[in-house]
Amino acid sequence: xxxxxxxxxxxxxxxxxxxxxxxxxxxxxxxxxxxxxxxxxxxxxxxxxxxxxxxxxxxxxxxxxxxxxxxxxxxxxxxxxxxxxxxxxxxxxxxxxxxxxxxxxxxxxxxxxxxxxxxxxxxxxxxxxxxxxxxxxxxxxxxxxxxxxxxxxxxxxxxxxxxxxxxxxxxxxxxxxxxxxxxxxxxxxxxxxxxxxxxxxxxxxxxxxxxxxxxxxxxxxxxxxxxxxxxxxxxxxxxxxxxxxxxxxxxxxxxxxxxxxxxxxxxxxxxxxxxxxxxxxxxxxxxxxxxxxxxxxxxxxxxxxxxxxxxxxxxxxxxxxxxxxxxxxxx
Amino acid sequence: xxxxxxxxxxxxxxxxxxxxxxxxxxxxxxxxxxxxxxxxxxxxxxxxxxxxxxxxxxxxxxxxxxxxxxxxxxxxxxxxxxxxxxxxxxxxxxxxxxxxxxxxxxxxxxxxxxxxxxxxxxxxxxxxxxxxx
Lengths: 331, 133
Prior knowledge:
The structure holds two protein chains of two kinds. By secondary structure, chain A is α/β, with parallel strands linked by helices. Chain A folds into two domains: 7-162 and 317-329, Glycogen Phosphorylase B (Rossmann fold, 3-Layer(aba) Sandwich); 166-304, Glycogen Phosphorylase B (Rossmann fold, 3-Layer(aba) Sandwich), CATH 3.40.50. Chain A is 34% helix and 18% strand. Chain A contains twelve helices and 13 strands. In chain A, the strands form two sheets. Chain A has a seven-stranded parallel β-sheet, with helices on both faces. A six-stranded parallel β-sheet of chain A has the order 10-9-8-11-12-13, with helices on both faces. In chain A, helix 1 crosses helix 12 (319-329). Chain A is globular. The mean pLDDT of chain A is 95. Chain B has one domain (1-97). In chain B, the strands form three sheets. In chain B, strands 1-2 form a two-stranded antiparallel sheet. The longest helix of chain B is centred in the middle third of the chain and has 8 residues, at 54-61. Chain B is globular. The N and C termini of chain B lie far apart (35 Å).
């Protein structure tokens, strides 16, 4: 049953692509339910992504320049919040705001507040009194991973959130075509994800060169980038083509890992250091690599032993349960 | 110059706040205030010259340099952590479930894999480095 149209504001500040991806998944599902969604992002990838057309009519994306300093970013958040009063405000990951600015700004928002509650560096949780900040929210939605206050009385846990449902992803044949492989080409495909910090995007390119040197002509190695980058193949969202990928190489961020798990795509990943996210906790030992040689060995091993379990044809996308939970607290 | 340890003495600092447990790393130096043996991860430098443990550094941050680091008597019901002990993996249950406090079996507790992020706390980057997430 369609819900009454509500105005959502979605705060998704944070570096890299992860916060924006998770928020885009939620926004798309909310728009599909008929809601109007304003999404705030300062992802450095946001200017290059066709977010409005992908999210659908009813979505507005406010892109804050990722290069702004703290004061300017805080001012942009304040202006965005002051534009209008929504029926619900959803905040991704940071209950205090990325710059701590929501502590002062939230009391000015006369709308129910929802926190997308995820793991955070325990040092930060302790030092910045995150417990108190969490208590300012009417609902905590926990998107599929353990989080510090996941047993809070107002917390609701869902399956992991994904940008696309299974039926919106390409089949293996279609995905391989989309990635440029001919129908007669039976070589396995290794995809190296180029996202995260700028230096990590460049490192992904180096990883591709190394893997190509050792795997050509036995496998095709592609460098997938969300926005145009020299030498990379622009694909966004990558989830759409994962059924065509035999081994995925990336980092241990939320979206890469959950997309690989949902699609059953073998993953080889670095645990990248992050200020708040703990990627090493997310990765399994079999997935995690410490250096380039180990990465090369694991990729080669996975290609040699491709007859693993059949890959799932469908999955539960937690965004739908999240949208329903948020609808229940919206005005 | 802070004293250094060549011995295999264990760090006497604790990890975690709501369910603290002894650090299992080897000590490399000694806190110049409370004389506790500490590892590199639990070492802080005050004013560029005084090597102290995390507890003493925190007390100094709070302007409460005279406070006994072992005194936790002020954790009362006004402290949000009092209410949140059962709300997540910082909870009392998780602490109890991990058996011996030094077993290190709680998968959500600090691990070696947290080293990078723990080291970053020295950067004072939280809520300052807006691209660091």
